[in-house]
Design a protein that fits this description.
Length: about 130
């Protein structure tokens, strides 16, 4: 699975390898105490490891990168809908399966649908008490 990114300031393409964090700590003299009471600042910067066509690994701040393509497809293609307008959506299929299963209620422990005639949950094994 290859992800191609564009480094905006450098105007070059790279192969995305993975995310990471860069930590920093800065110290400067304070106005009143000078070096006796320095002002300290620290934090993390989200970074991304990339490599160029020669295999050289570089780290860039992630906000300087833009994803161009994943597995040879432009990013916009990954967000297109794959459903036909009149095809049932996945939640509609789940609702249809529940109605075919008869009267079913969620297990109190794991929320798996359990039919009324079952004595224990098929998923977690919880023994169910039938109410009369």
């Amino acid at each position: 699975m290859a992800t191609i990114v564009w480094h905006k300031p450098g105007r070059r393409k790279y192969l995305f390898l993975g995310p990471g964090f860069g930590a920093y700590k800065a110290q400067r003299a304070s106005l009143l105490g000078g070096d006796w009471f320095p002002h300290e600042e620290s934090g993390e910067i989200t970074m991304a490891a990339v490599c160029d066509e020669n295999g050289m690994i570089r780290w860039f701040p992630s906000d300087e990168l833009q994803v161009l393509e994943v597995d040879g497809k432009p990013v916009s293609r990954w967000f297109e809908t794959s459903y036909a307008p009149d095809a049932p959506l996945p939640q509609d299929e789940d609702d249809a399966r529940r109605s075919q299963a008869g009267a079913a209620e969620p297990c109190p422990a794991c929320l798996t649908l359990v039919r009324a005639e079952e004595r224990e949950c098929p998923s977690c094994g919880l023994t169910l008490i039938m109410e009369s």
